[in-house]
Amino acid sequence: MIKLLEGPQTLGRGPVFWSCFLAVLAGALIYPLFADSYDVGNFSYFLIWIFMALGLCLMWGYGGMLSFGQTLFFGIAGYAYGVLAINMGGGTTTIAALLLSVVIAMIAAGILGYFMIWGGINGIFFGIVTLSATLVLAFFLGQTAGPEWHIGDARLNGFNGMKGMDPLAIGSVYIEGSALYYVMVALIVIVYLALRMLVNSGIGNVIVATRENPQRAEMLGYDVRKYQLLTFVLGSGLAGLSGALYTSWGQFITPSSIGLPAAAMPIVWVAFSGRSDLTATLVGSFLLLFGFQTITVYSQQAALVLMGALLLATVMAAPQGFVLGIGKFVADRLTGRGKRGEADLSAASTLKTDEA
Amino acid sequence: MSAEVFSVFYQFADVFAFLILSAAGLAIVFGMMGVINMAHGEFIMCGAYVTVGLVNLGVPLPIAQIAAAITAGLIGVVVEYLIVRRFYKRPLDSLLATWGLSLIVTQSMLLIVGSSVRGIGTPEGSFAIGAYTFSSYRLVLFAAAVAVLVGLYIVFMKTRFGVIARATMQNAAMARALGARTGRIYAISFGIGAGLAGLCGALYAPTMTLIPTMGATFVVESFVTVVIGGANVLLGTAPAALLLAAIRMTLNASYGQIIGQIGMLVAVILIIRVLPEGLSSVLVRRGR
Amino acid sequence: DPPLKVGLLEDISGDLAFMGMPKLHGSQLAVEEINKSGGIMGRQIELIHLDPQGDNARYQEFARRLLNRDKVDVLIGGITSASREAVRPIVDRTTTPYFYTNQYEGGVCDASMISMGAVPEQQFSTLIPWMVEKFGKKVYVIAADYNFGQISAEWNRKLMKDLGGEVVGEEFIPLGVSQFAQTIQNIQKAKPDWLLTINVGAAQDSFFEQAAAANLNLPMGSSIKVMLGFEHKRFKPPALNNMHATANWFEEIDTPEAEAFKKRWKAKFPDEMYINDMGYNAYNTLYMYKTLVEKAKSTKLEDLRKVIATGDACIDAPEGKVCIDPKSQHTSHRMRLISVGPKHEVKVEKDYGTIQPYWLGEIGCDLTKKNDKDQYTPSHLPKKS
Amino acid sequence: MSLVEVKGVSKRFGGLRAVSEVDLSVKAGEVHCLIGPNGAGKSTLFKLIVGLFPPTSGSILFDSVDITAERPFARVQRGMSIKMQAPSVFKELPVLQNIQIALQERTSGAERAREQERLLELLGLAQDRTKMAGALSHGQQQWLEIGMALALQPQLLLLDEPTAGMSPEETFKTGELIKSFNAEGMTVLVVEHDMAFVRQIAQRVTVLHLGKIFARGSLDEILQDEQVAEIYLGKTHAH
Amino acid sequence: MLTKSGSTDRILDVRGLWAGYGATPILQGVDMTIMRGEIVGVIGRNGVGKSTLMRCIIGLLDSWRGTIAFMDRDVTALQADARARAGFGYIPQGRDVFPQMTVEENLQVGELIGGPKGKKLPEMVYEYFPRLRERRKQIAGTMSGGEQQQLAIGRALIGNPALMILDEPSEGIQPSIVQHICEALKSFRSELGTTIVFVEQNLDTILAIAQRCYIMEKGRITHSLVGDEVNEDKVRAQLLL
Ligand SMILES: Nc1ncnc2c1ncn2[C@@H]1O[C@H](COP(=O)(O)OP(=O)(O)OP(=O)(O)O)[C@@H](O)[C@H]1O
Ligand SMILES: Nc1ncnc2c1ncn2[C@@H]1O[C@H](COP(=O)(O)OP(=O)(O)OP(=O)(O)O)[C@@H](O)[C@H]1O
Ligand SMILES: [Mg+2]
Ligand SMILES: [Mg+2]
Predict the structure, then answer these.
(1) Residue of B55, C98, C292, E171 with fewest CB within 10 Å of its CB?
(2) Is this prediction's ipTM beyond 0.85?
(3) pLDDT value, residue E171
(4) D89 part of contact set with chain A, CB < 8 Å
(5) Are C206 and B207 in contact (CB < 8 Å)?
(6) What class, spelled out in words, does domain D1-76+187-239 have in CATH?
(7) Which chain regions cross the lipid bilayer (chain B) (predicted)?
(8) CA D193 / ligand 1 centre spacing (Å)
(9) Can you give the pTM of this predicted structure?
(10) Ligand nearest to the Cα of D20, by number
């Protein structure tokens, strides 16, 4: 099992990497001791989104499925958490609400995924179908302002959003501040390591094989549809986790968390970070969330221009993604070779890339 | 012809024109060249702003519109040269790059031109049939859409440039090895795509509110139309627009715009499920 | 003395920038004036503005940031109702007052929030009877398909029923839709006497141009057009011809106080296309805050609310005297009914004098007694206890 | 006993009948070669056997079970594997991982490690194991693909032009390899244009032409056939 | 090495060519001279760099060092398209037809770009490869392997190049058509004066048409056989070294 933490599918191997990992983790664990409580809360907030990014990385980077539907499942789970938390009445039941809402998102992903994958939808068509489904949900929720739209005691409340649910709690104690922070860090570590093990396992092998050439994978005796469905359900479930946590964090969710341009954001984070690696996605998404917030706070109207320029500069300078680009640069320096990166470039085509 | 019947045709033509005009540029840039152009809406916006700017300077509207399309096309060529040409092999990265570009452009427009520009009014007046009155300009839009379709077909199917351009987009290295100046072909094609987007903006400028983010209203529809059309955009885009226009128009008329919008997206999901390769895959098979 | 920190959340980028910009300007103008004249209780105001870019999640992030990190004394801002609702649960858990400065669909009964804009009983109960009387009993409604539009439509329905009128059609438009040929036809089919246009956002505003091009030619009424979106400035005449609205503020008001205010504004922001009611309300908000703090001799929400409870929380605004209603913490306004002519000239048709925001109080919201933290609509009334 | 039985199978593409009413049976344990002009329908027939296309009509039996409606992976799990005509390896994965993906269902742990070394050695790709498969030369990709097909240890091995682009010695080596697997009981069906190679391995030969079975028999019988020479072999091979 | 001088006869002159992918060198100092009107074969084991050499000559891969001269003009700095217009024709390994275009359009691409050419060329291609005429409207991507190979050859030929570079033209082609292609190549030379360099694994083909033959090993040309030396025993002997 432990061996699966490393493997061909994940960058970052060996004692150096794991020492860094432990150092960062230790840093994260002692951070609340000397940081402002606002900053601790803000960090937990960033971590909320990372699950969604990791899920997309799994689907897109590893599975080759570009899903525009992360916010669809984010929304489903987010609203589900709201409905459940309001109706089940707060307290410890919020934990059950969280788990159940993720399950609901996964079931929804299972249904949509079955519909798409068994129908042979792939490539950009996959993107457009997931996008359409996402927009349908957003439009639908947008017109539920009237009081007739309610589930139990929970009013959907249209564009203004659902509110009034309790945040995560144990008994009558809300999981907030540092407690929430530690829960988030623990969840991130678990999810990250579990995903590493998944992608380095035999299943991960088949997932990447399916990305590369589904027909060949099938010719090796794998029912690729099942693997694709598994990938889709897991990746979407992670988006669901983000959604439920988000609702619980802000006690509020609106359809605009689902529709455009929210739907494009996970794609931006993952593409920026380097979609082909979990670690890159983890680090990159965090940096980008942090960076965008900081830019927005300090640069007023120039914020969007700077954000755009940042993205543009990144893709132009580091084609494999910002973090992956830096990671590889460092790794090459450390090991004195650059096998993987180099071959990636040349494998793209047997003929020379056509640029000049 | 009864007013009701005419009205149905008119509404259909109106939605069709909207879909075709917003999708035409993207059909080339995304459908043929494979660049996921998130800045498509910004080229549309550019066409609209230039049109309004020129009209305010006293240029007659049709000339302003043509000039706007050309301007957008030229900007497209520059953008291709500076940014897009790095991404032909990496379509998914083109998404990020053009998204960044789109952020920069919309916000810069806001900073430079201001949050809103005064409209120029719709030309051509109106006509009445039965109890209904119609804007004549909408017929101009429809005619323009048809002209764009025919023009695209001729340029890419019948001209020397078109054949070479299609070859380049399918296998650039091989086309080079046969002597095609692929860099130039890419730049021109992207320019045509951007120019058509600009044309869309120019044509709709008199009928819309101009704000820097106005391009966004076109983007979903245009992507959906191009994708439904399938790999062969020259064959697929028109039937895709016809189909979607019919669905949207019917739903709009009977159940209102919300159902029209939701219904169109649901239809998209169902169409792709039935034809996972898009409409043109069926047409190509038939055609042979 | 340390400065008073005022946290401001206004969109100055994204889709709503054209509305958010005047709001920022109004706040900046007021802060400058107040600081020049000695501040609030001798303390200067430090304005901390963040731009949530029209994103509800950012509203939440930034509200927390301003409240918990910058520890502002008061929070102001928000454009859409959704952004206000995003901020409210966060403010509710603090002891900081929150001012919402827009006109809106009304109904929020929340002790932490003070509403400075006009609400339906001030706008619709004036406009709709007038339109019915002047143009006829049949109305067709086009409304944005979100809470503002739907609740406003609900108000219209209720009022039309009381007036014996008929709603011959209601069409809800998803945000971002910009094509209206079908809608125009639907309207012609329904043959209304007049239109209620509560469509929202730049895309939906295209309706006016397209309706004019199709020669629809119907009288129109609205609670948000002209004074808020200054469509009569943005569109070429006569697209807005025959539009009617009731407003507490519009740039064309020509009282001496208003003229003086406009002069100060234009001096500071000469490029402003139009001083809309949102920007104006934002300006008033700071003066109202100043009055409250000076009367309470404190910046605590609790103490400010004591002043409000006295019913004597008033300022002399450019529109006239306005006061905060103790029960609902909404503001009374001097309402005028305006119309737009073929050349887009604005004329005052009727001056209603001061109108109280009475509805919430009537249905049982009384913040001096209990804090509901809820939003009510005609079809969602407080539970009788 | 025939391992595969193709019964009256046809496949149309639009107006074109690529495979038409073909009956073919491959006996368990034989090396069977399928030859025929370009476009005769050989690859199409292969794809029908592994299930990449549904046949327009007819049925396909494997080990006496009708598999016509089965999905490709299920057929592979029954014990067949294929090397396609155009190399279709996992281009952006390292060579070693390509092999592992093929091996992992059948073997695990130390056995897999042993198997994988053996295969890499056999394919001459031991030095290239960390290279991306897409960075291999054309011939090396063919090898890799053959290796992946072999890794499954199928009962029936389908090879579509295995030696295309291989040098003469390598072609010969491939032939010996096929024979050795055949000796261990593997049934092999091969499409080839290289007659020397066919001679080296084939026990039976079937000629396909215009989607139909044109001739069958031993290679010598086929080479004698003047019509075959005319449609396919040309003059040098005609005796 | 061939020593015949007289620079006007020299159509291609490759000197000390180095090239590779990423940081890995593949070609390590290749020298090669082709005379006008020759048919020259290149043979070698899998992975020694034959295709790499051809890509480098046509300009799809940048050379690191060394020069390539075409008709006494240094073309090392020219891009592939410029070289093609100067008179190179290329048939890559793996065919690379334009998959979404019809057979006819594929041929048009070759025809439209190349230099001036005779009117009969398209007709000639159809005559050599009647299957292409039958399938004029078929989408090239759906053709069988051998059919695509014929199309790729036809597409290059139709541009009437002075120098044709073929990377394993007989791969996947039925024996009779291989013979046919050999005939065709010979007659291009005699009728159009085309010079031909081709990579081959199929000994019969080499023996049938090559006047000279280069043998490649690990990124270098190790042997060059001329005239009578191009026979089965010699080639096999060299290859097995
Ligand atoms: N998807 C398809 N659509 C249309 N026609 C097709 C398709 N696939 C194959 N064909 C046609 O069917 C015929 C048989 O093709 P197939 O690939 O089976 O030939 P083959 O015998 O393998 O030839 P080769 O020896 O050249 O590989 C060819 O004429 C080909 O053009
Ligand atoms: N795109 C590429 N990226 C990296 N290395 C490559 C690439 N293409 C080929 N190589 C390597 O270069 C070497 C030579 O390859 P090349 O394709 O030139 O061989 P070849 O002689 O043509 O072989 P074959 O007979 O198999 O076609 C091989 O070791 C191969 O692994
Ligand atoms: Mg074949
Ligand atoms: Mg090669």
Answers:
(1) B55
(2) yes
(3) 85
(4) yes
(5) yes
(6) alpha beta
(7) 15-36, 43-59, 65-84, 96-117, 137-156, 185-204, 224-246, 258-276
(8) 15
(9) 0.93
(10) 1
